[in-house]
Amino acid sequence: MANRRMAHTRKGSARRLFVGLLVMLATGGASSALAGPGDLLISPTRIVLEGRDRVADLTLVNKGMETTTFRVSFENRRMLSDGRFEKVETPKDGEQFSAPFVRFAPRQVTLAPGAPQTLRLIVRKPADLEPGEYRSHLLLSAIPDVVETAPNAPATGGAISIALQPIFGLSIPVIVREGILTASVEIGDIDLDTNAETALAKVQVRRLGSRSLYGDLRLIDDRSGSVVAERRGLAVYTPNSARWATLPLPSVEEDDLSHYSVLFEDRSSTTGAVLSDPVPLLPTR
Fold first, then answer.
1. pLDDT tens digit sequence for 144-167
2. Nearest 5°: phi and psi at 55?
3. Half-sphere exposure of 88 (CA within 13 A, CB side)
4. Which class does domain 183-280 fall in?
5. Which top CATH class is 40-145+166-178?
6. Could you state, in order of their start, the residue ranges of all structural domains in the chain?
7. Fold match between 40-145+166-178 and 183-280?
């Protein structure tokens, strides 16, 4: 997902425009630490504050070879049906955000190679907060070094010189839950694409209840009970009722796919995992 950010500088009558490409990872990864494109390691990769939880700590480590500065901010995002995200400009019904009552510090960090940094988040819920799940995304954006144009480049009135400079960043969800929330999961429609270079099953994961899902989508060989394909760290965020995800199909004859089934295990509950019923790997539409 890419956005463009512009920084303007003026010198004499010439304008210099530096365009940065922001590469962001909207995580829900399965691992407890995530290496970002700017060599930033962050752990954990998602934060859930519920019940008596009021404080959470993030550990940041610069795994690169250069000292890098990161700006920290909140951004509200909407999950699309295919799992991608878009920035929320105008909230829709059911979208609730945690940014208004989550504070964090520091707001900017400069990390030397190998250096760790702790970022602390504190939630301060309003007394009249309605029960439900609230989510915003904590965005860490690398601040690029200033790029200068060549000193002997001619500067004419109104001229614009453009230099592309990558601005790397990543984001993690920060979820605040109020009240007793529940969720269940079921497998919906299934599409099979056996003609592609890599055969895929496109699976719809349906969320029911008042909180989001976070877990693993698995393809099971019913004859042995073994897992033959898996998508770990798959999220279905509120208020979405479903999302699509893909699994690679085993290299078998199409008729043999009836010996396989799909299930989802939600592991975001504090009271134990929630399993969907296994569904045969058969196209439903």
1. 765 555 555 555 556 665 555 555
2. -135, 140
3. 19
4. mainly beta
5. mainly beta
6. 40-145+166-178, 183-280
7. yes
- Which distant-in-sequence residues (6+ apart) come within 8 Å of 192 by Cβ? 199, 200, 201, 202, 249, 254, 257, 281, 283
Closest CA to 77 of 59, 51, 61, 99: 99
Residues sharing a CB contact under 8 Å with residue 276, sequence separation 6 or more, in sequence order: 185, 186, 187, 205, 263, 264, 265
Q: Can you read off the two tokens belonging to residue 101?
A: 């009552």
74 pLDDT more than 70: yes
Give the amino acid at 124. Answer: R
Instruction: Record the tokens describing residue 225, joined without a space.
Output: 């009970």
Q: Report d(CA 45, CA 31) in Å as an integer.
A: 7
| Residue 130, token pair as written in the block | 């309605």
Q: Mean per-residue pLDDT for 223-250? A: 95
